[in-house]
Every structure is written in structure tokens, then in C-alpha cells.
Design a protein that fits this description.
Strand content: 15-25%
CATH superfamily of the largest domain: Thiamin diphosphate (ThDP)-binding fold, Pyr/PP domains
Number of helices: 23
CATH architecture of the largest domain: 3-Layer(aba) Sandwich
Strand order of the largest sheet: 3-2-4-5-7-6
CATH topology of the largest domain: Rossmann fold
Radius of gyration: 24 Å
Largest sheet: 6 strands, parallel
Shape: globular
CATH class of the largest domain: Alpha Beta
Number of strands: 20
Length: 564
């Protein structure tokens, strides 16, 4: 049967197991929309902005492990995707982005809504493709999905001129193989590398595991637990590694780094061996590189060889799929107890109680996150943007299930939380999904409350409303002589009324006694609900290691009041 290019795209997506697309229409992709009406198996989520489309695809991909798919038209439609694409690239999220392009004869002529989207996105994609022949469409899409999901995952963009979507018809043939010379993602690690890593681990006295996003991506949760339990090695997690290891496990220490737990940072600093599992040693973890874990050797497990020695030099670098690597490593590990080391960490926890919340009559934002964790029993999917709310969620929400924490890690994009939560709920309809935002970040993407209503996506939206651009305000307080320029808001809308305007139940919370009841009411109410928590406006996030500094310069919360 002969098909148009648009129909071939639809058939190809079905071949790849796609069941949902996040999209905004436009002239260059209208033929695709015309074809979609014939394919009921492809659910279409109409978002209000292209940035939301790619971030929703990101959230969907993270919770499902499948490739997320989004689509936009040419020109501004495509350029509006760039922030979300860059975020997916930095956080290693598998998405396929389909963009429309002006007809082939118009390319290079500054036609209406023409942009060189492959050129623009080349630095922030794993791969991108401009399709110039309708016969190349099936192979291009097959290869895009393969590249996106294999090795270190990432975004792949397929740019398709309008006349290819709606022009010549050809016989649809799904390719059986790939033609990707030079693309050979690592599989199992080299046996010698595994043996060298095992030798260092078996001889270490104060080893510590740094569990990164690679544990989540590879779903190596059981393998991680088996490994650390055998050797009795404590575990710290990066921001994106949160939920990879149970918070109630005796070996769980927590997140180190700039706004990590003080005792987790100190444990990392005092270790004699850092075992990095799928972590890239970013600056928020290491601080000043010359002072990072000064007594420690390093083992670095990763599927991307470009990460080795980029920031921290590895004594042993293990290249390969992390799940397979841990399966090979654990049998070579001696059973250990490391009693003195674990006792040292317990003492650090007692001396540096980072999770204690002081008693206060004011509504503290960290109290809200603590109560959310307790009311939900740590069983919800939690999605955040970037800023203070992100750090408080990372510190105080205790994730009981793996792969239930979504945040914009590497790029740190404000506004990520609303659309990514929508995508997460579409991917995991069985889970309660919470979007946690600050009042500023929420306003960047709140238009997609309409998407939640229109597409019946039951997300619970929580705003920590402090009337300021919280994290920037904190930096101004600590490092810029309290020069609070352009970070205090007087024009915020009434978020409860905004919710009601969209047909969503809105609840304002101004007192700590109202917190638990409001959370329960939101969870018991069918459909989307918005909670507007009016929190203390000048509350800083502690601990804090200033940018470029070491653990020795860590700022902990002053003990001036009783803590609960």
C-alpha cells in the first residue's frame, strides 16, 4: 500500500511502540495532523507551548523508560523546543523530536518560518537528521529511536520538510537493520576493568558509593542494593540519583553537594574510595575540584567514555552498561562490615542534623515538603523545576519507590515541573503525581493547566509561594550584601483564582495547621488540584557550600531555636 510521508511517519511511530505524542500544530506539520486522524492508537496531547511539549515528553520518558515523542512546526515552533531538548541532553533522557520544515525548494531562501533547526540543535542533541527524500523516512525514524534509547540516552531530532509529508506516495517498507557506522554503544565491561575495581574495593577502609542518574537509567536498583549490602558500603546519591536507593536503608546516607545534607558531604570528603556509579562529578557535587575527597581514590563506572577524567581523575574507569557491570562486579567483592566507617558516618549524622526543621509559627517551605512526604508515604511521583523548592524536595521527600523523582538537573530549567508532571502522569496513570513549583517558575508554564483539564490529566500542583525568586534572593543575601534587586515580586496573580478560571479546584494554605488537611483534600479530589502554600518569604536553604568552595566552607543552619 502506498502512503504519504505523513502516513509513513505515523506507521513508523507505531512500529516503534509509540502510544502518545505531545504536540503543538502549525502549517509545516499540518499534513502530519491530517494523517493522525486516521491513527486512533496514537494519542495526541495538545499542549499550549512547544516548550511544554518537549518537557512533557521528557517526563513521560523518565517514568516509563520508553522514548518520549514530541512534535512542533518549523521556525518558532522548533526554536521553542530548544530549552527542553537541552535539558534532555544534559540529563540523558531518550526523546525523539519531530519538527516540520519549509518545503525543500524554499530551504535556504529565508522563507516564512524557516530556521536551520538541525544547525541550531546540533550542540544539544545526541543526533539530528534532515530528511530530504520521502524514501528515507522509515530508516530515519528507526535510527532516531535506536540512537535515543541506546548507550547513554538522549534526544534525537528529525526535521521533515512539508512537501515530504504531503507529496509523493511510496510503498511503506520498515527497515530490518541499521546503517550507523561508528555508533557502537558499550555493552558488558571489560573483565580486567571489573577485576581492578574489585581489588580497590576489597582493600578500602572507608569506601562510599556515589549513585548517579545512571543507576536510574539502567534500572540497576537491585544490583546496587546487592552490591552495597555484600560489602556494607554506604551510599550517597546525586540530585538525579535520588530514588535509586531506599531512604530507610541502613546504608543510605543522602545527597551531598552544594545543598546536600551536611553529613553526606562530610562522609564523601572523609572517604578513601569513591565508587561513582553513573555520575558525572558535576560541580554541584564536587565543589572545588582540588579539594574534593582529598584522601580518596576513585572508581568511575559509566557508559559514556567522554565522562572519564573530565572532572575527577579515575584510578579505575569501567566502561559499560551499569546493570551488567554491577552483575559482574558483585561476585568478586569480599563480604565486609566496615564497622568503624559506618560508626563514623552515624556520628556525622548526629553532629550535623541537616534534616531537622526548627519549630516556628510561620509556614516553613521545608515543613510543607516533609508533610507531603508523610501524607503520601513517599509513594508519589514528585516533579520539580529548579531553585529552593527543588532542594527542599530533594532533602525532605523520602522516596519509597525507585524512579519516582523527576527534576531538571543539569540544565536547571525553571518551568520544567508543570509539563514534565503532565507527561509523567500520562506515562504512569497508576501513580499520584505532584508538581512542586516556586511562584516564579510556576508562572513560566502555568498555561498548561489547560492541558491538564482538556486531556484529563490528574496532576496535583503545589506552589511554594514566597513572593521572591527564592534561590537568587538567597545568593543576593549571602554574597551580594542583601542587594535584592529584581527578585521580589509585587505582581503575582491570585493562583487560586487562576486555578478556578481553568476549572481546577484551588486551595490556599497560610498556616501550618492547614497543611496536612489540604494535601489530603487534594489527593481525595478527582482531577487536577492546585495548592498555594503561602510560605515564609526569606527562608534560605541549608546546608550550603558556596560555588567553587569545599566542604570546609560549608554553611549550616544556625542553631538558634529548638528543632522538631
Amino acid at each position: 500500500m502506498e502512503l504519504t510521508g505523513a502516513e509513513i511517519v505515523c506507521e513508523s511511530l507505531i512500529k516503534e511502540g509509540v502510544d502518545v505524542l505531545f504536540r503543538v500544530p502549525g502549517v509545516a506539520v499540518l499534513p502530519f495532523y491530517g494523517a493522525l486522524s486516521k491513527y486512533s492508537q496514537l494519542r495526541h496531547i495538545l499542549v499550549r507551548h512547544e516548550q511544554a511539549a518537549v518537557m512533557a515528553a521528557d517526563g513521560y520518558a523518565r517514568v516509563t523508560g520508553k522514548v518520549g515523542v514530541c512534535c512542533a512546526t518549523s521556525g518558532p515552533g522548533a526554536t521553542n523546543l530548544v530549552t527542553g531538548i537541552a535539558g534532555a541532553q544534559m540529563d540523558s533522557v531518550p526523546i525523539v523530536v519531530i519538527t516540520g520544515q519549509v518545503p525543500r525548494p524554499a530551504i535556504g531562501r529565508d522563507a516564512f518560518q524557516e530556521t536551520d533547526v538541525t544547525g541550531i540543535t546540533s550542540p544539544v542533541t545526541k543526533h539530528n537528521i534532515l530528511v530530504m527524500d520521502v524514501r528515507d523516512l522509515p530508516r530515519a525514524i528507526k535510527e532516531a529511536f535506536h540512537i535515543a534509547r541506546t548507550g547513554r540516552p538522549g534526544p534525537v531530532l528529525v526535521d521533515i520538510p512539508k512537501d515530504i509529508l504531503f507529496g509523493e506516495k511510496i510503498e511503506f517498507q520498515w527497515p530490518d537493520d541499521f546503517n550507523l557506522p561508528g555508533y557502537n554503544p558499550p555493552g558488558a565491561a571489560d573483565e580486567d576493568q571489573i577485576s581492578r575495581a574489585a581489588c580497590l574495593i576489597n582493600n578500602a577502609k572507608r569506601p562510599i558509593v556515589l549513585a548517579g542518574h545512571g543507576v536510574v537509567i539502567s534500572h540497576a536498583f537491585a544490583e546496587l542494593q546487592e552490591f552495597v549490602e555484600k560489602a556494607q558500603i554506604p551510599v550517597v546519591t546525586t540530585l538525579l540519583g535520588i530514588s535509586s536507593f531506599a531512604p530507610d536503608h541502613l546504608l543510605h546516607v543522602g545527597m551531598p553537594g552544594m545543598h546536600g545534607l551536611a553529613y553526606a558531604s562530610l562522609a564523601l570528603d572523609q572517604s578513601d574510595l569513591v565508587i561513582s556509579l553513573g555520575a558525572r562529578f558535576d560541580d554541584r557535587v564536587t565543589g572545588r575540584l582540588s579539594a574534593f575527597a582529598p584522601q580518596a581514590k576513585t572508581i568511575h563506572f559509566d557508559i559514556d567514555p567522554s565522562e572519564f577524567n573530565k572532572n575527577v581523575r579515575a584510578n579505575v574507569a569501567v566502561l559499560g552498561d551499569l546493570k551488567l557491570s554491577l552483575q559482574a562486579l558483585t561476585p568478586q567483592i569480599d563480604r565486609e562490615v566496615h564497622i568503624e566507617w559506618l560508626n563514623t558516618i552515624d556520628n556525622l549524622k548526629s553532629e550535623h542534623p541537616s534534616l531537622k526543621i526548627r519549630e516556628s509559627d510561620e509556614l516553613l517551605p521545608q515543613y510543607v515538603l516533609q508533610q507531603l512526604s508523610e501524607v503520601t508515604h513517599g509513594e508519589s511521583v514528585v516533579v520539580t523545576g529548579v531553585g529552593q523548592h527543588q532542594m527542599w524536595a530533594a532533602q525532605h521527600y523520602r522516596f519509597k519507590e525507585p524512579n519516582t523523582w523527576l527534576t531538571s538537573g543539569g540544565l536547571g530549567a525553571m518551568g520544567f515541573e508543570v509539563p514534565a508532571a503532565l507527561g509523567a502522569k500520562v506515562g504512569r496513570p497508576d501513580k499520584t503525581v505532584w508538581s512542586i513549583a516556586g511562584d516564579r517558575g510556576f508562572q513560566m508554564t502555568m498555561c498548561d493547566l489547560a492541558t491538564a483539564v482538556e486531556s484529563q490529566i490528574d496532576v496535583k500542583f503545589a506552589i511554594l509561594n514566597n513572593g521572591v525568586l527564592g534561590m537568587v534572593h538567597q545568593w543576593q543575601e549571602f554574597f551580594y550584601d542583601k542587594d535584592f534587586f529584581a527578585t521580589e515580586y509585587s505582581g503575582n496573580p491570585d493562583f487560586v483564582k487562576i486555578a478556578e478560571a481553568y476549572g481546577i479546584k484551588g486551595i490556599r494554605v497560610t498556616d501550618k495547621a492547614q497543611v496536612v488537611g489540604a494535601i489530603r483534600e487534594a489527593m481525595e479530589t478527582p482531577g487536577p488540584v492546585l495548592l498555594d502554600f503561602i510560605v515564609k518569604p526569606d527562608e534560605p536553604v541549608y546546608p550550603m557550600i558556596p560555588a567553587g568552595e569545599s566542604v570546609n566552607e560549608m554553611m549550616e543552619e544556625p542553631i538558634t531555636e529548638r528543632v522538631s
